[in-house]
Design brief:
Largest sheet: 4 strands, antiparallel
Strand content: 25-35%
Number of domains: 1
Distance between the termini: 104 Å
Structural class: alpha+beta
Length: 149
C-alpha cells in the first residue's frame, strides 16, 4: 500500500476509518430495511388484489345465471364456492316507477335487486359486495310450460 505523508512528516496508511465504516454500514442497514418493507407491502397488496379478483370471478359465476336459468324469488340464500370463499345472496323486488303514467303493476316485467356478498379469509375476514338489477319477464314460467307442450 502506498504510504501517505502528513504535513508533520509522519507516514500513515490510506484507508477508511472505523467511523466511516460504521456510518456506511448504518446507511446500508437502513436502506436494506426500507427495501424489505417495500417488498413485504408489495407482496401483501398483490395477494389482496388476487383475492379480490377471485371474489369477483366467483360473484360473476353466481350472478350471471340468476334470473335466466331459474325464476328469481325474494329472499336470502347462502353457500360456499370452495374452502376459502363463501357467499350470501339477498334478492329483493324493486318497485318500477314510470313517469309516463303507466301502471307499474300491469307491466310485463319485474325488477329485482341482487346483493351478493362474497367473504373469505380468516380474522379479519374480508368481504366484497356486488349489486345488480335484473329485469325478469313475469310470464316466464307460463311461456316455458307452453313451449314444453
Amino acid at each position: 500500500m502506498p504510504r501517505l505523508t502528513s504535513a508533520s512528516g509522519k507516514s500513515r496508511q490510506g484507508g477508511f476509518t472505523l467511523i466511516e465504516v460504521m456510518a456506511a454500514f448504518a446507511v446500508f442497514a437502513l436502506m436494506f430495511g426500507m427495501i424489505l418493507q417495500i417488498l413485504s407491502t408489495s407482496l401483501s397488496n398483490t395477494r389482496r388484489a388476487g383475492d379480490f379478483t377471485q371474489a369477483a370471478l366467483w360473484a360473476q359465476s353466481k350472478l350471471d345465471p340468476a334470473g335466466i336459468e331459474t325464476m328469481l324469488e325474494p329472499g336470502r340464500t347462502s353457500g360456499r364456492f370452495d374452502d376459502r370463499f363463501s357467499w350470501t345472496l339477498e334478492v329483493s323486488e324493486e318497485m318500477v316507477f314510470d313517469e309516463r303514467g303507466l301502471d307499474a303493476l300491469e307491466m310485463p316485467i319485474a325488477l329485482y335487486r341482487l346483493d351478493l356478498t362474497v367473504t373469505w379469509g380468516e380474522r379479519p375476514q374480508r368481504e366484497a359486495l356486488f349489486s345488480t338489477l335484473r329485469s325478469v319477464d313475469v310470464n316466464w314460467e307460463e311461456r316455458q310450460q307452453m313451449m314444453l307442450q
